[in-house]
Write a structure and sequence with these properties.
single chain; three-stranded antiparallel β-sheet; extended
């Protein structure tokens, strides 16, 4: 009798353990996509949109928004990272908007309860988007880049579409790009001191953010902070005359933003 009870106990434990194993949630280890797909800013030739892309993207994204039951007016911010394979097809996407409700109008946000459906609607429109694939060292490569768009549903039910630069070789001013070596100033030009500032004894500092290309030439400049607007233009003018050794990533030059301070101080 005891042997039958013992046998029954072992059978029960085996069934229990198998049930636990079957019901256990599997944790999947996924690769670091940003290491498999190269940043578009460090490849030799970034992926490029094909002819007619802007028109198609506009219609596709408006169609995606139309599937949602949202009362106008409302803004739909679309901010995604797309991973493009060696053939120019979108392989994967990631939502990087943090919050679908960004810039939503207060009078309609309470009526919009389908935020989770926006990305699903967009995904269905991306499968046939085609690009010229990125190239690096003469070969087609996987790359990733960010896509930003805004679809505004007006009071009258019509839609306005706005799209930021996409698949450009110019990084966004706020992008963080790890590099092996930052741009180094080879030639610096002092800014011209405004005559009015001299007469009035005004001094101050202007911080300019400068986009330096692969040849070490400034191609864009923006005032980040300024003690006095009177110094802004002289600082911008001087910054665009600088020359650099470009930023280096994986032994190659890349495009990079740098911050240059310009101090305006009178000799006393």
């Amino acid at each position: 009798m005891n042997s039958i009870k013992l046998f029954t106990f072992f059978i029960t434990m085996i069934i229990f353990l198998l049930g636990c194993e079957k019901g256990r949630k599997e944790v999947e280890i996924v690769p670091d996509l940003e290491s498999i797909y190269l940043n578009q800013y460090i490849v030799d030739v970034p992926a490029k949109v094909k002819e007619g892309f802007n028109t198609k993207a506009e219609q596709d994204l408006i169609d995606a928004v139309k599937t949602l039951d949202a009362t106008a007016p409302i803004n739909f911010k679309i901010y995604i990272r797309v991973f493009i394979d060696e053939n120019g097809n979108i392989d994967k996407i990631r939502d990087i908007s943090n919050d679908y409700r960004l810039n939503a109008y207060p009078d309609s946000i309470n009526n919009y309860k389908q935020v989770g459906k926006l990305m699903e609607a967009i995904v269905g429109k991306l499968s046939d988007w085609q690009f010229e694939p990125a190239k690096d060292r003469g070969k087609n490569v996987k790359c990733w880049c960010d896509f930003k768009a805004n679809v505004h549903k007006r009071h009258d039910g019509t839609y306005k579409f706005e799209m930021s630069e996409f698949l450009s070789d110019m990084p966004d001013i706020n992008d963080f790009i790890p590099v092996d070596k930052m741009p180094q100033v080879n030639v610096s030009i002092p800014p011209k001191y405004p005559e009015q500032a001299k007469r009035e004894g005004i001094d101050g500092t202007v911080y300019i953010k400068l986009l330096v290309n692969k040849e070490g030439k400034p191609i864009r400049s923006v005032v980040m902070r300024s003690d006095n607007e009177i110094f802004n233009q002289p600082a911008l003018d001087a910054a665009m005359k600088f020359e650099f050794a470009p930023a280096i990533k994986n032994e190659r030059a890349i495009v990079m933003w740098v911050v240059i301070p310009f101090k305006f101080k009178l000799d006393k």
